[in-house]
Design brief:
Layout (H helix, E strand, L loop, with lengths): L1 H38 L8 E4 L4 H7 L1 E9 L2 E5 L2 E18 L4 E13 L1 H7 L3 H4 L14 E4 L4 E6 L2 E11 L2 E5 L5 H5 L11 E4 L8 E2 L5 E4 L2 E14 L1
Antiparallel strand pairs: 1-2, 2-4, 3-4, 4-5, 5-13, 6-7, 7-8, 8-9, 9-10, 11-13, 12-13
């Protein structure tokens, strides 16, 4: 009986040591992956990386991680050199093949999301005068539309106190377009804007986190706190 008890205790201790070693190893790998994502230019700020699944060491031996989660707040995305903050970024990467001591990695599939505030979104749009055929506008030629939530699938736009109406937001690839703006009666009378057509306003994001791209034609969704971007990717080269 005593021999059985000693053997049981030894197995429990050994199991505890193995679990502890596994958790230490995964913590080291998560820190290294976060560093490499910044060094490779895939992330503008060091993210939090979580490698799911247990045990981790068996995944290392197979050189394929089943489920990797990445999160960060305060990343940046850019259009033609203009950078704006991407808030509440979260991504899930499935089937991450690693090599070279985490110096290279490819992802079978990934998805994620983040939010750009309406104030920042407006900074990426062309000047309002450009959208209205060069008409004189309040605030000068470089004035920009102010955007806010307009309900499901829509945003509201204004020039100072003057409403420019509602618009839809959609994307094709990484190009986002604000479309369908119609001048209000007040705007038509203001500063000679009568019968002025409001052109669609587009911009293309040329830096994306974790090598992902905007998802299909459903990559943007207006929310009360900003424009949510939805990301996806297949066969993504994450590192190396």
């Amino acid at each position: 009986m005593r021999g059985w008890l000693k053997a049981t205790i030894a197995l429990v201790v050994l199991a505890g040591l193995l679990v502890g070693a596994d958790r230490i190893a995964v913590g080291v790998a998560e820190d290294e992956a976060a560093d490499q994502l910044v060094k490779s230019g895939q992330m503008s700020k060091r993210p939090d990386v979580t490698i799911e699944g247990f045990p981790f060491l068996t995944q290392v031996l197979s050189k394929k991680l089943d489920d990797v989660r990445i999160s960060s707040d305060g990343l940046t995305v850019q259009n033609d050199g203009k950078q704006v903050a991407l808030h509440s970024f979260q991504a899930r990467l499935s089937g991450v093949e690693v090599g070279g001591n985490l110096k290279s990695a490819t992802v079978d599939s990934g998805s994620g999301s983040g939010v750009i505030t309406y104030q920042d979104l407006a900074q990426l749009l062309p000047p309002a005068s450009q959208l209205m055929g060069g008409a004189p506008l309040p605030g000068g030629a470089n004035s920009r539309l102010s955007l806010s939530y307009g309900g499901p699938g829509k945003v509201k736009a204004s020039l100072g106190p003057v409403s420019v109406g509602e618009a839809t937001v959609h994307n094709q690839g990484n190009t986002i377009t604000v479309d369908g703006l119609k001048l209000s009666s007040l705007a038509e009378m203001f500063a000679g804007l009568t019968n002025r057509k409001v052109e669609p306003a587009s911009f293309t994001l040329d830096s994306m986190p974790a090598g992902l791209q905007l998802a299909g034609k459903d990559g943007v969704t207006p929310l009360p706190d900003g424009l949510q971007l939805s990301f996806e990717g297949k066969g993504v080269k994450l590192l190396g």
